[in-house]
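Two quick folds needed for the group meeting slides. Do the first one here.
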Amino acid sequence: MLKDTATALQTAEYLLDIQAVKLSPEDYFTWASGWYSPIYCDNRLTLSYPEIRTFLAESMTKIIENNETKPDVIAGVATGAIAIGMLVAQMLGLPFVYVRPEAKKHGRKNQIEGSLPKNAKVVVIEDLISTGGSSLCAVEALREAGAEVLYMAAIMTYGFEVAEDNFSLADVRLITLCQYDVLIEKAVEKGYIHEHDIELLQEWRKSPSTWKK
């Protein structure tokens, strides 16, 4: 996982400034998976702020431009990464598709929406990486359609060990603009959380599936 410290810090600051990230070590959240969490990240909020969404899209565009192998298509993971993925595709002047969690049950029964040529080289855009399960389902769908997935670029990752294992097993390189440790560092700096909360937040990340159970 490649890191750009300046980009990571700026991304973290933006996410905290617009409260896209909610940190609540005491009054914790329940995720759809049933996991309990002291943090909740809603990167969709960034779309309401032109300066921030432009920064995120430009940062992802630079990642793609700086890689030697150029993609033929940009793919967004539905639904959270459709908008940011389309912005990146627009900046690069490339075709865009998006990938549903599963094929539709009606109409053309597509899982991949848009025109995806055979053997296309694809960069997948995601908004947030937790376990990586849904993100990698999109990769699998693209591969089954005959695409070559170059790597995945995401706004943020929680940095779970299970996610690292899943990406390694699927042979997918992951590049993120911001990482959990950087987010927590910036949150302390801005007074968003207190230093005595750090140990709890780190303990949660080590075993999120069993935390508070």
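Then this one, please, same format:
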Amino acid sequence: MRMAEATLSEKLAQHFISLRLESIPEAVIHATKLHILDSVGVLLAGSHLETGKITYDLALSFGRAGSAAEVTLPGTQGKVSLLDGVMAMASASHCGEMDDIHGGAATCIGAMIVPALLGLGEKHGVDGRTFLEGAIGGYETTVRIGLAINGPSLFGRGWWPSTLCGVFGVALAGATLLRWPVEKAVNALGIAGIHAGGMLTGGGEGSTARHLTFGRSAQTGVLALLATEQGLKGPTRIFEDPRGFCLTLCENPRWDYLERLDDYFLPEVAFKPFPCARQLHAGVEALLYLLDENRVSANEIHAIELGVPRGVAAMIDRPHIMGKRAASLASGQYIMAVTVLRGKLDLDSFGDVFLRGDGVLRLMEKVTVKASTALDSYFPRSWPGRVRIKLIDGRSLAREVLVPKGEKENPMSANEVEQKFRTLAAPVIGEGKTRVLLEQIMKLEKLTSLDDLFSALRPGFA
């Protein structure tokens, strides 16, 4: 009698749950540690931003209602339940728009995978090798699903590829961390899939609740694990069923991404050097080059044109942000204007002095976003941008960046990633604990306990 072919969930679970560090290329392991470090840094910084504080308070309010104190809220001394903690951590991780992303899959990943692993790891007690293996499985799963359904195509239909695909990555990362058998992992993938969601609605209005979508997706992945433990049954063919995840979202899925599992996509996941939507990074890079190379000041500029692929132009054409930080993060007009005014782009670029300042508002009126057919062929393999500056004296300056900083082809060095981490973490937990965290994460494979790592996530002396 012929045995039934394994489902896609079974293939994914079997492959990634059985992976062990000794069979994984050293370059992949090193990249994983850098992405964990980066994700912890953006989480700590996000915990002190307005939206991060609100989601932390939301999680703490559930605790006051009687939930168990199981996991740490990084950047604070507070502890909450696993589900509430993962929700708050993932929301805080994304709200600063500094989290990593795979452009081809259009999925931000670390902001969901790492908070979920931190919560599960603290509650259950795991070693560093297991943590790394869970992270690799979670990243790889999220990227592969985003590629299979052509994640970038979902932007135009209002779906958020990151939150749709992230539930699966979290579920499989957690199942790997907990050393589950394949059948339990498959069940968790099915439960996660039927609860997947997330819409882009509200970005232009400055809706801060959209960051909670990241939190809810990470929470859903963990909930799928808990529901499996309690005996709830999920679909085993969540991907390939005619009414399943892939065919619901994509007319012609690329099934090969879910079947051929021998290579690694994690080294392709990009770091973000700037705290803004990835669609704008190439433009920021080009603009900073022109400003520095030509010593241009704001009062010399007549107009700025930002060209981007047609697939993202509508998302970043936001001339009216109404002083709202959440809307400004993906506003081509605001990002170009504040970068000109300050000569850089960092978290301080989104303070009220700039969001409501006359200088930035006047410059925004000079910025136009243009859909460029010439850049279409590069997207979504890379997310390019072209900046043209017309000066009052009649001169015209132009710069094109086809591969923004942080991609594999235009990488941030390990030192640059570590410096980004220090810049984000130290104001929250102090220099001493920042050093401890850096040391702990970069030697994860040698740690038999993560207690020192979790201790370092809380403010105070090292």
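Slide caption for protein two: The mean pLDDT is 95.
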